[in-house]
Amino acid sequence: MGLPNININFSTAAATALERSQKGIVAIILKDANSTGAYTLTKATQVALQLGTIGANNQKYVERAFIGYVNPPKKVIVYVVATTEESLSEALQYFENVQFDYLVGPPDCDTTEATEISTWIKTQRAEGFTPKAVLPNTAADSEGIINFTTTGIKVDGTTYTTAEYCSRIAGLLAGTPMTISCTYAPLPEVSMVDKLSKEGIDTAIDSGKFVIFSDGEKVKVGRGVNSLQTTTETKGDAFKKIKIVEAVDMIRNDISKTAEDSYIGKYSNNYDNKCLLISAIKGYFKGLENDGILETGTSTVDIDAIAQEQYLQSKGTDTADMTEQEIRTAATGDQVFLKSKISILDAIEDIDLSITI
């Protein structure tokens, strides 16, 4: 008879998680006088073919996104609005129904446009979606916004602004597998950037700025951080790291989508079927542990007996004489209360070496 469908679907999501993390999707908003509309590209050579009518700077901006890091992005989705548009709302409305990992504004993205994108990203994430954006000089205090601040970026004798290189950073992040971080990722095409002292780089990173710097031999990423500064009990310092947020977003998306497609509305809400869901999620976490995304042996999923008891009490049930097992197995209408604990593996970024001679 085989496994129930929900187990199979969660196992499939886990099995493909590492593969999906190898190549991300970059979304780009452009403003152009010659062309408008949406375009989907899977390689840099398609830029001239599909976007040959737009300005040269816009074309090169899209091409930079394909450089990537370990891998190039899986695809780049471009939405072009007319230069006469006063806002980016048309493009943002389009991207509400498109799956992507990192969004960037136009190569001349100004403060107003960056703020518009930042506000949109925050709104989407507050509603349970997981888009992220790379924006120039935008201290958004959000795990969904990467605040890129490096200036004086020189490539083949041309100096680029911070905004003009946001697509490159988005492509680099999208091309970073989930098992590693982008910290110290090299940008081999960049010959020089405006110099910061080590203290200046440390201060920038600690304040949520994503910087690239020269180590004297090559230009590379300082540390893979986002703009989050205000932490809470449920969103601690770990959420300042791009790698951790990537994993959290993927897990949230996988569990939500698979539950919606294979569980919600398809099973009666009894104890046995709750256990089926728990077993399926455990299998999903086990797959992520095997792939090195989660720490081995640390993932747990169970019925949240406290939340379940509160629900029963809210419906007028006297739980004073109920055992914990009776609370766990009690009917809860159309509600399922679960609790989980996972440990996302970070990448090696700081090494302390004591040498005795």
Describe this structure in words.
It comes from Ruminiclostridium papyrosolvens C7. Belongs to the myoviridae tail sheath protein family. InterPro entries: Phage_sheath_subtilisin, Tail_sheath_C. It holds the Pfam family Phage_sheath_1C. Residues 235-356 form the Tail sheath protein C-terminal domain. α1 (5-21) runs antiparallel to α8, α1 packs parallel to α9 and α3 runs parallel beside α6. This protein has two domains: 7-237, no CATH class; 266-341, no CATH class. A seven-stranded mixed β-sheet has the order 2-3-1-4-5-6-9, sandwiched between helices. A two-stranded antiparallel sheet has the order 7-8. The chain is an alpha/beta fold and 357 residues long. It contains eleven helices and 13 strands. β10 (212-214) and β11 (219-221) form a beta hairpin. The protein is globular. The longest helix is centred in the C-terminal third of the chain and has 21 residues, at 242-262.
Radius of gyration: 23 Å
How many discrete domains?
2
Distance between the termini: 65 Å
N-to-C SSE string, H for helix and E for strand? HEEHHEHEHEEEEHHEEEHHEHHE
Number of strands: 13
Low-confidence stretches: none
- Give the averaged pLDDT, no decimals: 92
Spatial order of strands in the largest sheet: 2-3-1-4-5-6-9
The percent of residues in helical segments reads 25-40%
Described by strand count, sense and barrel closure, the largest sheet is:
7 strands, mixed
**Rough shape?**
globular
Structural class: alpha/beta
Our estimate of the beta-strand percent is: 15-25%
